[in-house]
Here is the input.
Amino acid sequence: MSAELITRFRNITPDGGVIELVVWKVPTPVPPTEHGFKYRAVYAKDGVRIVGFDNERGKGDHCHLDGQELPYTFTGVDQLVEDFIAAVAARRAT
Here is the structure.
């Protein structure tokens, strides 16, 4: 089985920000994760990442918020989307 695209979304905001989310179902987990998804989600403006969620090989599930890298507990694609949207909304509101 090869990787299967689950969702892909990209939007340019009126103020020039970029919001992008891509999720793949993969045949084997990306170490050290144990789930079968590979994902990346980013909100960037003026070339600076403000919010990011990903599961990079060797690092596992984590997020980038306001310049800090923090652990992230992946519980499913729906929750990932909700967490990402909430993090972006919180930073766009300031």
Notes: The longest strand covers residues 4-12. DSSP finds one helix and six strands in the chain. The helical segments are 77-92.
